[in-house]
Amino acid sequence: MKNPHDIIIRPWITEKSMDMQQQKKYVFVVHKNANKTEIKNALESIFGVKVAKVNTINMRGKMKRMGRFVGKRPDWKKAIVTLTDDSKTIEFFEAL
What we know:
Number of strands: 6
Largest sheet: 4 strands, antiparallel
Shape: globular
Distance between the termini: 29 Å
Number of helices: 4
Structural class: alpha+beta
Radius of gyration: 15 Å
Strand content: 35-45%
């Protein structure tokens, strides 16, 4: 799991996560076994930003039904990343 692109899976784009960008906070879906240090190093190498803080949340998959069949969505991990004040913004979110 050394490749940074394996650690950062995709950005999590919601209304709440877009509002958090004014405080320089960005939300990503990350690999389930990644720790905060790996997430920080991966973001700094991919986007060239300075990370101040990383908060992680283990999200449970929801139970779903299709008629009489019951299934479960997979569990996943979310990371809320706070950038330093002198860091540049992530251009990926500027286009949205």
